[in-house]
Specification:
Elements lengths: L1 E10 L1 E11 L2 E6 L9 E9 L1 E6 L17 H12 L4 H17 L2 E8 L15 H13 L2 E8 L22 H9 L8 E6 L10 H11 L3 E5 L3 H11 L3 H7 L7 E5 L5 H9 L3 E4 L1 H6 L7 H7 L3 E3 L9 H16 L7 H8 L13 E4 L14 H8 L5 E6 L2 E5 L2 E2 L5 H13 L1
Parallel strand pairs: 1-4, 5-6, 6-7, 7-8, 8-9, 9-10, 10-11, 11-12
Antiparallel strand pairs: 1-2, 2-3, 4-13, 13-14, 14-15, 15-16
Amino acid sequence: MVTWHAERAWIDRIERDVAIDVEDGVITAVRPGASDGSASRRLRGLTIPGLVNAHSHAFHRALRGRTHDQAGDFWRWRDVMYAFADRLDPDTYHDLARATYAEMALAGITHVYEFHYLHHDTAGVRYSDPNAMGAAVAHAADAAGLRLTLLDTCYLRPGFRGGELDPVQQRFSDGDVDAWAERVRDLRLEGPAQPGVAIHSVRAVDEESMPIVATLRDELNAELHVHVSEQRRENEECMDVHQMSPTELLATSGALGPRSTAVHATHVTPMDVELLATTRTTVCMCPTTERDLADGVGPASAFVTAGARLAFGSDSHAVVDLFEEARCAELHERLLSNRRGLTDPATLLAAACGHRRLQPGAPADLVAIDLDSPRIAGGTDADAVARVVYCATAADVTDVVVAGRVVVEDRAHIDVGDVGGALNAAIEKLLQ
């Protein structure tokens, strides 16, 4: 057993001098007001549960700085993204994902949900190991010290009315849902990675195939994620073909529920909000990507009011900073509503932490934040959570522990070392 001594820890409220006992990667006791004499490790500043990145496309990290100043909309950006997707193989994918996940670790992220749809080679032909690309991602997360849920994504068609996939989309598809499900059943992940499933979107998976994905979710006791209403065009086409919204269509297919997550949910109706809440479907918002792609502003406060559970993701990794994602869910809505305080800081921080708490039985994923940084200094324990949500950045994370193991110490990644150098090398290799 290892005992960590946290100067301050967030346990519903801020407590001082908190002893956190850890055994086999799990918290066994949390003791506020404890002496630090028995502690084998110490955490300065404020300790919170590890941040959970609920939506990631690791290879999008190579796009940073290459599309931000580009004119057009999401669909123009997608063309550039496809060009990068066409360059990846298991080796380059591993190197880029490892460096990207190491950047996440430095930002306090301890668990990442990878929305994985790069399955085959650039001609759409399966590798000798049909799950080689997924295995590369799992090895990358393990090398970076992160927990991983690999959301193997079903992708079958280019749009609602079917037709031939674009050449680059061929590598996303298994041809039909049964072939996809067979491959997913054969997926074997090493290390702590867990399998999950995903419907890319209602435009990319037909109405008859979506229930099969939902059935596999239940068979594997896994999670199911799906892009929902990211674009108004998707809503319009879905309504034209099915006479219902994407959320309603997913509900009829059995894809919503307590082990499902609707990603984005930016352009939703009040009925959609209620449907997501009543089915206990998590809503993952990705505000920095949604603003970068000019997608729109999602109704975070409406989801919270309806009782839906929020999560946050860095998606395309325009930045990797879940504090920024959390505060933007509130601040973007302020610009539209001319009202402040729509969603309280504790709710936003809980969502960024995957609603995990520092309590016995929870994973020993700990993140220490420097309360004396120039961005956060000058407050009290009473306003510490608000200062973290509204003022902290990824640079304020000092130490990260995953399953009781130190991954980041004093702002340095233990295993990867020079994370910037690793990103440079991986992206340069990809560009070549």
